[in-house]
Every structure is written in C-alpha cells, then in structure tokens.
Amino acid sequence: MLGNEQSTPEEWRTSFSEAHKAWTQFSTAVAAVVVSGPVSAAKAAEVLRVAMYD
C-alpha cells in the first residue's frame, strides 16, 4: 500500500502504522539481543537490523 499510487490516504496511514509497528518490534528485539546475547549474536543481529533499515 505504501507504494501504490491508487491507495487512499487512509490506506496509506494504516499501512504506514503497521510497518512502523513491525519495525519497532523488530528493532526492540535486536536491542534485546545486543544487550543480553552473546557478542556473536549481537553483532549478527545488528548487521541484520542495518540491512533491514537500508
């Protein structure tokens, strides 16, 4: 929906909200791994987070 030129503003807002919520949950999970996980897992999680962001 975010890239669909025919979507309505309400559909765009809903899609944006869902994407933002998913990103927030993912980023929070990565932060938890970085804080409590082994160093190798923390590094891998951070690489994945950066890749997903890009």
Explained architecture:
This protein is mainly alpha-helical and 54 residues long. The protein has two helices and no strands.
Counted by DSSP, the helix tally is: 2
Computed CA radius of gyration, to the nearest angstrom: 15 Å
Mean pLDDT: 85
Helix amount? over 70%
Number of strands: 0
Give the low-confidence spans: none
Shape: elongated
Major sheet description: none
Reading the helices and strands in chain order gives HH
Gap from first CA to last CA: 19 Å
The helix/strand class is: mainly alpha
User: How much of the residues is beta strand, in percent?
Assistant: under 5%
Layout of SSEs?
Elements: H1 9-36, H2 39-53
Helix pairs in contact: 1-2
Keywords:
0% strand; 2 helices; mainly alpha
Give the structure's gist in a few sentences.
By secondary structure, the chain is mainly alpha-helical. 80% of the residues lie in helices and 0% in strands. The model has no long low-confidence stretch (mean pLDDT 85).
